[in-house]
């Protein structure tokens, strides 16, 4: 068949583009090399009937009413505010760092104003925050940096804080009050029936065909289409002409505990200084599911494997810009998404980028 658009990838970027284009009357083909839709946000029940996220926890949050209302057309929501604790020196502390964290760690009883003064007394001022180390030291000082950030960053990114762009650490605030929510966005919800069910509704259109377990490089010569929307790695599209863009990958160790109804006190616990894994997530916190057992996942960062996180460094951004300039010369392809735009996007940011891309295409 002839299609108006061929979309490579059935994750957030691809599904949003497909839905919007189909709604405008375009014929769309979506291909994905995996055997399921949803990309890394795909969820499913494990063999014990617990809804899990095979590619690690995905918690939806956004300040954009437009994005929230758009996705609400394909799912009901469950209110959920994510909370994270960090295991440090044999105890658990709220992260992001707040007044509770500081009082418990140092045996203090600081008020909110006292906490502001404490942080001011320990911080190391920087004229310019160039690296993530600059951001953390200028916010919480060396001791809290070493306890909560340096080890975690080394595991997660394979780099020291001083080797990462400032934007990575800037994602994590420091609070002088007792707010222990990981996010403070206006809209914090989980899809009531899971992400996969939401994606199924997005792609449920007579104008959309979906082919799974299908490699774009293998089938592209046999598909006629007017335009390609590419959501995969931009360097792969161009055959790594300028070299490979660096990514961090992950290995997920899933485990079901049949005789434990609740494994940990919060959805995620970080391990900045202990163990090879960075964190453990227990899915029932996220989904609200009732089950006599529970399922958890441990995350082990890797240098090789599926590309999950673009590594934010100046030299990597410079390499991406070479690919971006090359992409601008290709008029029949639109590049959108975390891998195609080499950006450390949250889910809502991917949705926003896809909606913007479709507005241009339509």
Task: Please name the defining characteristics of this protein.
single chain, 362 residues, alpha/beta, Rossmann fold, seven-stranded mixed beta sheet, 12 helices, 33% helix, globular, isomerase, EC 5.4.99.9, flavin adenine dinucleotide binding, FAD
CATH architecture descriptor of the domain at 2-37 and 203-244 and 311-361:
3-Layer(aba) Sandwich
Distance between the termini: 21 Å
**SS content category:** alpha/beta
Oligomer: single chain
Helix-strand pattern: EHEEEEHEEEHHHHEHEHEHEEEHEEHEH
Write up what this structure looks like.
The structure is a single chain. With 362 residues, the protein is α/β, with parallel strands linked by helices. Among the domains are: 2-37 and 203-244 and 311-361, Rossmann fold (3-Layer(aba) Sandwich), CATH 3.40.50; 95-170, no CATH class. It has twelve helices and 17 strands. The chain has helices at residues 12-23, 65-72, 99-106, 112-122, 132-157, 166-170, 195-202, 216-219, 234-237, 283-287, 314-327, 347-361; strands at 2-8, 28-31, 44-45, 51-52, 60-62, 77-79, 84-88, 91-95, 187-191, 208-211, 224-230, 247-257, 268-270, 279-282, 294-302, 309-310, 333-335. Helix 1 runs parallel beside helix 12. The protein starts with a strand and ends with a helix.
In short:
With 362 residues, this protein is of the alpha/beta class. It has helices spanning 12-23, 65-72, 99-106, 112-122, 132-157, 166-170, 195-202, 216-219, 234-237, 283-287, 314-327, 347-361, and strands at residues 2-8, 28-31, 44-45, 51-52, 60-62, 77-79, 84-88, 91-95, 187-191, 208-211, 224-230, 247-257, 268-270, 279-282, 294-302, 309-310, 333-335.
């Amino acid at each position: 068949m002839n299609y108006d658009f061929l979309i490579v990838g059935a994750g957030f970027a691809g599904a949003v583009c497909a839905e919007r284009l189909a709604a405008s009357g375009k014929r769309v083909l979506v291909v994905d090399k995996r055997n399921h839709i949803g990309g890394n946000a795909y969820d499913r029940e494990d063999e014990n009937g617990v809804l899990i996220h095979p590619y690690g926890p995905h918690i939806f949050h956004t300040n954009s009413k437009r994005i929230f209302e758009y996705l609400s057309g394909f799912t009901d929501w469950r209110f959920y505010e994510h909370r994270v604790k960090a295991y440090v020196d044999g105890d658990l502390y709220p992260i992001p760092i707040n007044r509770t964290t500081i009082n418990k760690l140092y045996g203090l009883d600081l008020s909110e104003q006292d906490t502001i003064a404490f942080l001011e007394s320990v911080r190391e001022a920087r004229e310019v925050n160039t690296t993530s180390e600059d951001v953390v030291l200028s916010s919480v000082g060396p001791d809290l940096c070493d306890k909560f950030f340096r080890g975690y960053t080394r595991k997660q990114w394979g780099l020291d804080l001083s080797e990462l762009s400032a934007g990575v650490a800037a994602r994590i605030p420091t609070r002088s009050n007792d707010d222990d929510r990981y996010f403070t966005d206006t809209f914090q919800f989980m899809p009531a029936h899971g992400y996969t069910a939401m994606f199924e509704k997005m792609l449920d259109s007579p104008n959309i065909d979906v082919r799974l377990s299908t490699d774009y490089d293998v089938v592209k010569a046999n598909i006629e289409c007017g335009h390609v929307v590419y959501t995969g790695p931009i360097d792969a599209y161009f055959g790594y002409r300028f070299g490979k863009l660096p990514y961090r990958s992950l290995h997920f160790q899933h485990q079901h505990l049949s005789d434990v109804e609740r494994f940990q006190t919060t959805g995620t616990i970080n391990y900045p200084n202990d163990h090879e894994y960075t964190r453990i997530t227990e899915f029932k916190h996220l989904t609200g599911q009732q089950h006599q057992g529970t399922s958890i996942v441990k995350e082990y960062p890797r240098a090789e494997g599926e590309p999950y996180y673009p590594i934010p460094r100046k030299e990597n951004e410079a390499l991406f810009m070479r690919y971006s300039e090359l992409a601008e010369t290709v008029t029949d392809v639109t590049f959108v998404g975390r891998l195609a735009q080499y950006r450390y996007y949250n889910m809502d940011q991917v949705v926003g980028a896809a909606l913007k891309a479709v507005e241009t295409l339509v």
